Amino acid sequence: MYAKVLIEYKVKSLDRTFTYIIPPKLENILQKGMKVTVPFGNGDKTINGFVVDITNEDNFGNLKSIISIEDENLVLNEELLKLGEYVRDTYLCTLISAYQTMLPSSLKIKTITSSYKKYETYLISEMQESFLEDYILNEAKNDMQKEIIQCIIKDKKILKNKFNQSSVKTLIKKGIIKEYKEEVYRINRENQKKDNLLKLNEYQQKAYDEIINNLNKSNTYLLHGITGSGKTEVYMHLIEKVRSEGKTAIMLVPEITLTAQIVNNFYDRFGSDVAILHSALSNGEKYDEYLKILRGDAHIIVGTRSAIFAPSKNLGIIIIDEEHSESYKQDNTPRYNAIDIAKWRSNYNSIPLVLGSATPTYETYARALKGVYNLLTLPKRIGDANLPTVEVVDMSLEMKKRNTVLSDRLKELILEKLAKNEQIILLLNRRGYGTLVTCDNCGNAIKCPNCDITLTYHKTSNNLRCHYCGYNCKKPEKCPECKEGNVRDLGTGTEKLEEELNKLFPSAKVVRMDADTTSKKGSHEKIIRDFKEEKYDILLGTQMISKGLDFPKVSLVGVISADSSLNIPDFRSGERTFSLLSQVSGRAGRSGIESNVVIQTFNPDNFTIMMIKQGTFLKNYQYEMAIRKKLKYPPYYFLVGIKICSKEYEDASKEASKVYNYLKSNLSNEDIILGPTTAGIFKIKSIYRFQIVIKYRFDDNLNNVLKELDEMYIDNKSVYLEIDINPYYI
Ligand SMILES: [Zn+2]
Ligand SMILES: [Zn+2]
Questions:
Q1: Are 587 and 690 found together in one domain?
Q2: What is the pLDDT of residues 556-579, one digit of tens each?
Q3: Which residue, 206, 395, 409, 577, shows the most beta carbons closer than 10 Å to its own?
Q4: Rounded distance from Cα 608 to ligand 1 centre (Å)
Q5: Which DSSP category does 436 fall into?
């Protein structure tokens, strides 16, 4: 027997299979999709690879043998092997990197993965119960021995390390008890499921019915429910139904730490049937959770982006919560979008895909309105909760009153809510103390030496930092440009806001949540838990506070500056601002108390801001869609972003023109090719980046042209390309 093995080698030209002999000792064990070690090249070199086919043909001549199987538990099933080919063809990566992407990161590296297995030592007894009882009465030397035997009589199997070790030893020596090792999972949840599904309201029920009446079709549903409308409850009912038919489910969430509440709801409801997959797990935990799924010990997978590749058998439904989240798009090779992968799996298995959001992307919403997706709406909050009252404050008027950070109205409401012992959330999407450091003599803004971006002052650590590459330096006394002027700090970041709040409301307890205060494992969860337990009155932070949090006592949300996201030069900035502001506003008034939202802006007449005030998703959508149609942006056109990158400015610039000419002469005349321009941030980590954007509607040849282009740069030492199909940012 022979195996075709796809080897783990970075060179693209070697992204093909090599044939190996299957040695007799492996013949009965080896399966398609297993990871193996094989000899490669001359000498003793070995390499890992995936078996993609097993064959009987024997006209291959002189072949080497497979050395060993990496881990018998790890098998990419038929579906995942095929899915890998889809990923390769769609996102222009190698097949091997597609397969590697599907495995948890701890299993990608060349290691003996079985070493991740964790064992626990247990004690049992093969003696009759009457014998043991007799032993306790007549022979046991002390209470500790008696306790061990009593526990074995009661539980049959007990953990060795919980008992007195010398007594254990004595009993083993006498042959009364035996020890044995058993593999265990690191994350263990109660086996017992709780019957705590809530009754659905009429809208939830309607959505649920529609989906379960079509469980064997590959339909995509958009569950468009306003914040607090009870989408999670619908998900749980759907999964309950799918499980009752013996099938499995995958549910994606944007970030596990920020959606801990949802995960806990799932654990409470489905107990040990839940496996979780996300990057904050230890290598051992990832391995365990993956094995649970492969072995069928857990059937409900809750995880972040890469969990869409979970090796679930007999999949019955896929749910993607907060489908508008950019976390579903991977920003390095392969630049896949989990929603596309989910669609592929939904088709392959003929099962429903449910996309849930209060603010779906406009591409998704357009498809739902056109009937490509099925639109299901939850227009009301559950229970008696009402949406908050939204007010917009013009900051140019406040500036005249010297209110640079907080408007009078926001201050007034903060005092009012504090007096009522209610809680407050403030959003400021800029971390650090200020936003910019400039010279008061020449006006120079101090930039990062590695990136084309200004540095931010951090007061706590008293240094200047680059938020892109992590560069930091001490705050200079004098301007590095003119050597004369003093360096001063402008604008407001989360650190300064925190300082300001402590000054203005000295009795309030304030907590800050941003990348600086949450770098330690578990710190996110702690802040969220403490705030929920009302140890703090005010939670301030960057956009990480906008997602999925449910605090019943929050009755005021303040947006310190709506302009920071509005002013980003991207065709999606109106869509994203609406989404961010409605998500954060949605944190207020979830339990029925009267609640307010205050949005501070220098652009009170901006259309998106006005629509936030009215709370009309649809109008903002229609407005933005009219612009996109005119300017030929998605969903009217598809996009491809190509970045031409180099450490040398000249090389990047020269090759960018070459790439442009190549595309111009090979692509259809119907396609629009823009560029080359300097990419959003021109220089990042000392790499210069030029960008070309292709807009197209139908072009069968595009994929081939891009593949050829990509191959032209494989061996280029100075310049590399990043090709992004349907990029999130351009
Ligand atoms: Zn200066
Ligand atoms: Zn930098």
A1: no
A2: 999 999 988 888 878 999 999 999
A3: 577
A4: 38
A5: E
